[in-house]
Amino acid sequence: MEYTTVWRGSTMEDRSNDRREMLIDAGFNLLGTAGAAGTTVTAVCRDAGLSRRYFYENFAGREELLVAVQNRLFDDMRTIVESNPMQGDIEQQLHALFVTAAVYFEEDPRRVRIVCRESFADHTLRENLAVAAPPFILAAAGHFAPLMIDGDNPAATVSLLYGGITTLFIDWLDGRVTATHDEVANACTQLVLTLASPSK
After folding, report:
1. 148, 149, 154 from 142: Cα distances, Å
2. What domain range is 88 assigned to?
3. Percentage of the chain lying above the pLDDT 70 cut
4. Is 21 inside a domain boundary?
5. Where would I find the beta strands (DSSP E) of 45-188?
6. Which among 129, 110, 90, 115 is positioned nearest to 165, based on CA atoms?
7. What was the pLDDT predicted at 155?
8. Is residue 72 a part of any domain in this protein?
9. What distances in angstroms separate CA 125 from CA 12, 77, 109, 185, one per listed residue?
10. Residue 153 domain-assigned?
């Protein structure tokens, strides 16, 4: 028979999971404000109020934490995309998707820094990006079956699409581009439609 130790209403596993979430929360805050360079093990432990021992109980190293932060953001974005069914024609669907993205990023500027800036600047995050691209971009590039990327090199076109959209969101939230949610969504939508053509 197995026994589970309970302390103050929580098991050891519960407390371990709680500490992991605290570390990821601290990593998110640092990555979104100080960037990857400022997201050190020491800084994360300080922000989380936990010792290095607990850090290494949950993560093999700093790189594993960075990926956990990035993946949690992507999971959140995926949930939002999947919980907002798109209606109308392809242009209306794309517009609705990008309005949702604009609202999501504006709610917390740390999100756009991690997804659109640090994910390119840091080697570990960039490598993970090749495996787990942001759901808003995946939805724009692949969820809408009626679109087919033109050109001899579709991968290059998708890269251009990704770069253009992420740069727009960064410039918009940094104040270099003045626009409403609808105007940002319109620009992203037209970029996708320009780089793609209806499948035959």
Report:
1. 9, 10, 12
2. 66-198
3. 82
4. no
5. 147-149
6. 115
7. 67
8. yes
9. 31, 17, 18, 26
10. yes
